[in-house]
Amino acid sequence: MTNTQKKDESGNQEEILTNRQGHPITDNQNTRTVGDRGPTVLENYNFLEKITHFDRERIPERVVHARGAGAHGFFEAYGKVGDEPVSKYTRAKLFQEPGKITPMFVRFSTVIHGGHSPETLRDPRGFATKFYTEDGNWDLVGNNLKIFFIRDPIKFPDLVHAFKPDPVTNRQDPNRIFDFISHTPEAMHMITWLFSPWGIPASYRFMEGSGVNTYKWVNSDGVGHLVKYFWRPKQGVKCLTQAQAEEIQAKNFNHATEDLYDAIEKGDYPEWEFCVQIMSDGEHPELDFDPLDPTKIWPPDRFPLLPVGRMVLDKNPVNYFAEVEQAAFGTGVLVDGLDFSDDKLLQGRTFSYSDTQRYRVGPNYLQLPINQPKTPIATNQRDGQMTYRVDGVDAGENPHVNYEPSSLGGLKEAPKSGKPHTPYVQGPVIGQKISRTNDYQQAGERYRTFEDWERDDLILNLTTQLKQCSPHIQQRMVEHFTQCDPEYGRRVREGLEQK
């Protein structure tokens, strides 16, 4: 027996997971972080190897979010956050003045399936926004369901692989999906959302958006606050049952793209209000969950959604490929006054997203008009595949000097706009999940919040898929749902028992 094999409980030979260097993987659940809450450390070799390979699994289509639609528009700031001056919490310039306009581009998408898949499939919807601010681009990349399946980025390739088609049969397989989910209790909240009618938005115009992860706002004194972002459609929220989705899919698999494009062409411009939830920076031991956990919602009765502006989409793309397909977003694209939290999933996404764009579109993807900031660009970066301009020449930089510091006419560092935010970090570097997981409570609360027809649709959708799964997977899922809510688990079990 080799060192990558062992016997399982039944005495059968079991392969041991390794990385491509042949090193056995002893922990495939947690990235290495400072303490159990983070931040992550750069020497996460197994994570970096895993995620960089995953970023390059498809050419040239996106690995995820391949099916999408987009539009141009603008953001108008209210100058306040709720009833308070926004400057109390952030120095980001785009929010400061009432009526200040910032141009935007938005891309909506499904997640798992390919570029020409139906837009009626049960799948989270991507909600990616690019603000062309006076300080450069800000990308806010989230989804329509407020939360996510996992909390550690090392699990992202596993999650997507489980939901993607079987690598042998090329068919999406509920047995694979729920095999993974049944071993991932933190996903119960997202599964409850996804298999309810909320899992199929009626169209992009009637869809909420969320940044999902926890970020920070930083004011001019360098004080940081935890923040979550939300888009609320002024057209209202509309979703589809499985039966309604199938009826539409039988006639039109482009219905959401068509709806968005036609509405804008007619001048019926969709609009969203942009809101934030704010929490003081810290661990908040008074809560029964960790505020950095992306599988959780901050209770709006304790942390209300505060309006900060509105977004209007008023222009369709001139060319789909040049604008929508080549649009590239990244969670690390922040402007001054916005910052990262120690959210592990956010930190993993911040590396992965921009790495994916450099691979998918190319190292000079930011030279494309759809991705290029509206502000002057001056860097010391040079060359690379498909380059067609030299950063900094337009700013009067000496073309012979592509380094810093220099006294020969090179670029200079920009002055600081406020005190830096300097969070204090201390702790052992470990691979460990957060201490307050509380995987079932919010899933149960979500189930009890649903109206009767939403619960009926949820149970029907789950049991229809789970009936295709092995009995031991069904049993694990019933146990999880029961811990969320006894009625929830009972109804799924009874649904599985029906022929």
From TrEMBL:
EC assignment: 1.11.1.6
A cellular-component GO term for this protein: cytoplasm
Active site: 65, 143
Reactions catalysed according to its record: 2 H2O2 = O2 + 2 H2O
Biased composition (Basic and acidic residues): 1-10
Domain of life: Bacteria
Domain Catalase core positions: 18-412
GO terms assigned for molecular function: catalase activity; heme binding; metal ion binding
Biological process terms in GO annotation: hydrogen peroxide catabolic process; response to hydrogen peroxide
Cofactor: heme
Record keywords: Heme, Hydrogen peroxide, Iron, Metal-binding, Oxidoreductase, Peroxidase
Composition-biased stretches (Polar residues): 13-33
Chain intervals for the UniProt region annotation (Disordered): 1-38, 407-426
Primary enzyme class: oxidoreductase
Binding of heme, residues: 353
Membership in a protein family: Belongs to the catalase family.
Function: Decomposes hydrogen peroxide into water and oxygen; serves to protect cells from the toxic effects of hydrogen peroxide.
Designated name of the protein: Catalase
Natural source organism: Tolypothrix bouteillei VB521301
